[in-house]
Amino acid sequence: MENKNIIIILVAIIAVIAIAGAIFVSGVFNETNDLGSTPFKTNFMEGAFVGNVTLVDGKEKFMHSYKDKEHKITYNISTVDNSTALMDIYSIQGVTNPEERSFNGNDWNIYFTQAIPGNDTSKTNDTMNIIICQSQGEKQGYLIYAIFDGKSDVNSTGNEFGQSYTDFIKPLLENVTLKKSKNVPAINEEFGLTEDQFAEQMDLIQQYKAGNTSALEGAQ
Questions:
Q1: What confidence tens digit (pLDDT) does each residue in 102-127 have?
Q2: Which domains does the chain have, with CATH numbers?
């Protein structure tokens, strides 16, 4: 029972990470044909965001957060050793069927999902559209979360044909360079688990994905 409970804790924590920083995004959309760009550089990724984007949290070596106040977008970028396992956990929440694309020599899985701030279902007008871009190398994975505020005027249709993807995400992925880093965070350590404990949780998740729904029964 303890092991199954950990899964729910993991999913809850990840949900918080996915929407972190989006609630307080503000600004007014200024429609223009030339959105400009903002270069960024970390020790694990560099490139350029579309529009005027500001670094709001760069204290963590392997996780940075940026905001486009004009277009009400939050970008969270990070790296871990195994981003594929992270996406397997997301799949329990219904984040599945990614679009597979290759840009600038990198293979990406691109997921489209939504979230409501604070899980308050009465605030459906504040629903945030989220695009998760995930790329896994041999020993290092990379993640880009693009969170479009519910009040953003960017058209987010939830697929690769929407303005959020075509005007903001695709250009970003086309110019991003992924860097190999030393001492990349281990995903099990990110959740305070040993390698064996995390492997046990992932085994249950794989069973669930394979159709054994009873693998997660009784988890509270």
A1: 999 999 999 999 988 876 656 556 89
A2: 2-209 (3.40.1000.10)
Q: In whole angstroms, what is the distance from residue 68 CA to residue 51 CA?
A: 7
Give the end-to-end CA distance of the chain in Å, rounded to a whole number: 9
Cα 137 to its chain centre, rounded Å, is 17
Q: Are 96 and 110 contacting, i.e. CB atoms less than 8 angstroms apart?
A: no
pTM beyond 0.70, yes or no: yes
